Amino acid sequence: MPTVLFVDDEPSTVGLYRLVFEAAGFAVSQVPTASAARAACLDKPPDLLVVDQGLPDGNGLDLLFELRPLAAAAILTLGTLSPTVTATARYLGVETVDKMAGPRQVLSVAWGMLSSRY
After folding, report:
1. How many CA atoms lie within 13 A of 35 on its CB side?
2. pTM of the predicted model as reported, rounded to 2 decimal places
3. How many C-beta atoms surround the C-beta of residue 69 within 10 A?
4. HEC states along the chain?
5. What band does 83 get if pLDDT is binned at 50, 70 and 90?
6. Of 75, 74, 67, 37, nearest to 55 (Cα)?
7. Which pLDDT value is given to residue 80?
């Protein structure tokens, strides 16, 4: 069973993601801050990181720069897609998804990234 860690401080957003990803067979964990994500990844690295760009204690892209080596795949969700952020994310091996696209789009991208493992 693949594992996913959602890093987002919006409970309603994470709740929707949790429902969709659990129904698809993922074991889901969630944390609201970058500092909590660091601790969670060091304790048990997930197969997939899904990180919001705007976190209360940091920048999602900066966090992924740190944590990307610990996960098989990573997705950055953004309220507004920025060409600069998207290019930097891709350079790090991170996919970007517009947050408004919803959890099913994020799930589709996740399966594409993890398909060789599961």
Report:
1. 2
2. 0.94
3. 11
4. CCEEEEECCCHHHHHHHHHHHHHCCCEEEEECCHHHHHHHHHHCCCCEEEEECEECCEEHHHHHHHHHHHCCEEEEEECCCCHHHHHHHHHCCCEEEEHHHCHHHHHHHHHHHHCCCC
5. very high
6. 37
7. 85
Which single residue is written with the structure tokens 């969700």? Answer: 77
Q: Which residues pair with 95 in a beta bridge?
A: 75
* Inter-residue contact 101 to 74 (CB < 8 Å): no
CATH code for 3-113? Answer: 3.40.50.2300
pLDDT at 82 over 90: no
Distance CA(79)–CA(15), nearest Å, equals 17
Please name the residue that has the structure tokens 């720069």.
65
Beta-bridge mates of residue 44: none
Largest CA distance in the chain: 34
